[in-house]
Specification:
about 70% helix, single chain, mainly alpha, 2 strands, two-stranded antiparallel sheet
Length: about 425
């Protein structure tokens, strides 16, 4: 670390050590950069490889030749544990959820629509077939109603058959249902592609902005560290303790003021604790929104699975048509009023029993099985959120590490900052 943080290597051995250190760092960062672009941001492997190689070469030259750049780059690592690093991890969580959960939801919704389409198709076919039953019953009943009239030759009525105007073009119905199903499927596919593309573009923008902001944040910190003696200067460091001992003023640090803390201690100031709580609440809101998407995935699978099982278990509905017909003729009905006398002649008794089964599902329907939620996606998202919650409480310590890194790169300036803090404490005392 002493070689890495030196402004200029002292000899050729330190020079080659620095070059080897920078090469190892750029090789690791280049591999992570390629994996991030190809796997997370879903760029093509050609572009990812070219960008990773170019970025690695540029980073190697910058780290090897520019001393402040090494300091800024070193501070980027702990800065990943702060708010900007959480933004990168959160964008990764959103991308994982959209790429893996959204297609699963649309697939299950498509299964539900296929079940509805199958029920409509099967029930329409069965209903059209039932009209043939009514047609047959009407002709048999019409024939039976005319036979006795013909036998006695009294009066010939009109044709007693019922005339049905039936729509029997089942092919047209099937075509309409097929076209409606295809249209709904295309609409869902278009929505799925639109959501996925929109989130992917937003994720790329957020990721690029976050990376740039990480570099800006580290540069801004180093600039303030080197130009403002009061900036982030409230730590009891070893240089401050040595300075107080040399000037015989160790009593200044015996009972340190409340606004001073030790950088190696675990105690958080009141402001740091409140900031951690606020960041944890904001992260919880994001977690609840993501859990809502996960709940929608489970709900869609549950509905699709229930629809498929219930559709397969649909029983046929029996439809029964009973016709009972009796025709009588009464002779001289006025005699019944005078002499309580009447004679009835039975002309025809007709009984017909017709049955048909209405089917609401068919084995010929093409229904894709419901897709269960992937447990690996939930595991990845859960692990990422555990890391996110960890960074909330480690953000303060990451900032302290940034100060220590800057102090190791610029030791002479760190002594000036310690002297400034000592004079401030001396004046207050």
């Amino acid at each position: 670390w002493s070689v890495y943080s030196k402004p200029v290597p002292a000899n050729s051995r330190e020079l080659w050590t620095l070059f080897l250190q920078c090469s190892c760092i750029t090789a690791v960062i280049g591999g992570l950069f390629y994996n991030w672009m190809f796997a997370s941001l879903e760029y093509s492997w050609h572009l990812s490889t070219a960008m990773a190689i170019s970025f690695s070469l540029l980073l190697l030259l910058t780290l090897f030749l520019v001393h402040p750049a090494r300091c800024v780059f070193s501070m980027i690592m702990p800065t990943l544990g702060t708010k900007q690093g959480r933004k990168l991890l959160l964008s990764t969580c959103v991308m994982v959820a959209v790429v893996n959960i959204t297609p699963n939801i649309t697939s299950n919704i498509r299964t539900i629509l296929q079940v509805i389409q199958c029920i409509c198709k099967s029930s329409s076919e069965s209903l059209l077939n039932s009209t043939a039953l009514l047609d047959r019953a009407s002709w048999e009943f019409g024939d039976a109603s005319q036979k006795p009239i013909h036998s006695i030759n009294i009066h010939l009525p009109m044709n007693g058959h019922f005339q049905f105007s039936l729509f029997k073009n089942s092919t047209l119905i099937h075509q309409q249902l097929q076209l409606a199903g295809e249209k709904v499927g295309r609409d869902f596919l278009a929505v799925e592609v639109l959501v996925k593309d929109s989130v992917q573009v937003c994720n790329k923008l957020v990721a690029g902005f976050s990376m740039l902001y990480l570099c800006f944040k580290s540069t801004w910190y180093l600039k303030n560290y080197l130009t403002n003696l009061r900036f982030d200067n409230f730590y009891i460091t070893k240089k401050l303790e040595r300075l107080a001992v040399d000037r015989k003023a160790a009593h200044l640090l015996a009972g340190p003021p409340k606004n001073l803390i030790r950088p190696t201690g675990l105690r958080l100031s009141r402001g740091e604790a409140m900031l951690c709580l606020v960041q944890a609440m904001l992260l919880t809101v994001a977690l609840l929104l993501l859990l809502l998407v996960v709940a929608m995935d489970h709900c869609a699978f549950s509905v699709a699975d229930t629809a498929v099982r219930r559709a397969a278990a649909f029983s046929t509905v029996p439809v029964t048509l009973d016709i009972k017909y009796r025709a009588e003729m009464e002779i001289l009905p006025f005699l019944y009023k005078l002499f309580q006398f009447s004679q009835k002649i039975s002309l025809q008794n007709f009984e017909g029993h017709y049955s048909h089964n209405l089917n609401f599902s068919s084995a010929h329907c093409r229904i894709s099985p419901p897709t269960p939620p992937s447990p690996s996606v939930l595991l990845v998202v859960g692990l990422l959120f555990c890391i996110l919650y960890t960074t909330v409480f480690l953000e303060t310590y990451a900032q302290r590490l940034c100060r220590k890194i800057a102090g190791s790169f610029f030791e002479s300036w760190e002594e000036k900052r310690a002297l400034h803090l000592y004079k401030k404490l001396f004046r207050k005392h």
